[in-house]
């Protein structure tokens, strides 16, 4: 396949040179001025939920903002989510939206592609996420999950987040990459963690920003590691995602290039394990604070009468699914979704010219009282068929995005969450001090700043 053109980057702070409109072209939209060089970025990183609530209170569902070196538009409504994510008129580019944030670190991942290129790449990848493939992944991951969760209660000073992060990374290294040597798994996991951490760096010139430089170095190591194994995977018969991608052929005979395989795998490893890690951490915290829900789920999972989840069990765990959806509502893994206009468009009564960065914020609509009863309360039954608050607007709850870019790994994530919660709750009772409140870092991906210390008592 034809490689996409490389983006040029400026020498000042390392941000890309993208087509943009003059600052004055957005003056008709209410909002903030230029301020410092980084504009509103610091306020967003410090507390994304406060950032969007303050903006909505001041300016309403659409406002002008200023992030590094250019003005942009913030949309804070379920209608805005639908307008951007469904994108019926093809007004937006996902590639140009994510490029400033992720372009060098997760180059040409599926989320960073547009149009026919995105459709082809996604179509080639879909067989690896169909029901039969997911059943194979579940069979591979469940013994490891049962083994590792059994050990958690034996660790002094147990912290849930690093434990679940390590587990999901190990699962991804096995299911996605087919790695068996622990030394290889450990190095790959360290490099992925470094790349994800670098995505939060504001300074992106390697000489000045060491966090970002370490991310680029880790990305290069991952590229070399994966590229060296492609010939073997093309000629093998492995069932891991890496092997499947190496052997995939489209209806017209097209294959992934070596570069595309590497780019997709680096992105998918991040998307798969970080989303699940974030969701499971939120669930563990919520269940520790809400013992009645913990006991309700424990009763549900005990009906399976075994620790290892099987494909036929997944549909029998409906309350677990409600809890997962509520966790993703309260703390969506991605607080914001980025796009860039490729043509003039209009929303909420304001025109937006082409070449403007536009962002929607799931974290706002997920907490919007217009759609959710007592939105700050952990209440999984809001997702039950009897209440169905998520059906009030199809784009009020969008933790997996929407439209053509709806997360391809959504069902994998839901399956993995169930596969972890069944043995976890059958073996352990989760506890935290009554006065403990988790200090959340909401960007770039929701996680606890203190690792979520937790006690585990045998059931």
Describe the structure.
The protein has a 5-stranded mixed β-sheet. Helix 8 (about 180-200) crosses helix 9, helix 11 runs parallel beside helix 15 and helix 12 (about 290-300) crosses helix 15. It has one domain: Cytochrome p450 (Orthogonal Bundle). A hairpin with a 5-residue loop joins strand 9 and strand 10 (about 445-450). With about 450 residues, the protein is an alpha+beta fold. The protein contains 15 helices and 11 strands.
Describe the structure concisely:
This protein has 459 residues and is an alpha+beta fold. The protein contains 15 helices and eleven strands.
Rg, rounded, reads 22 Å
Largest sheet: 5 strands, mixed
Low-pLDDT runs of 5+ residues are 1-5
Helix content: 40-55%
Sketch the topology as an H/E string, one letter per element.
HHEEHEHHHHHHHHHHEEEEHHEEEE
Please report the total strand number as a whole number.
Answer: 11
**What would you call the structural class?**
alpha+beta
- Assign the CATH superfamily: Cytochrome P450
Strand order of the largest sheet: 1-2-7-4-3
Oligomer: single chain
CATH class category name = Mainly Alpha
Q: What spatial form do the alpha-carbon principal axes imply?
A: globular
Indicate how many domains the architecture comprises.
Answer: 1
In the CATH hierarchy, the architecture is: Orthogonal Bundle
What's the total helix number?
Answer: 15
How far apart the termini lie comes to: 54 Å
CATH fold-level assignment: Cytochrome p450
Index terms:
Cytochrome p450; 9% strand; alpha+beta; two-stranded antiparallel sheet; five-stranded mixed beta sheet; 459 residues
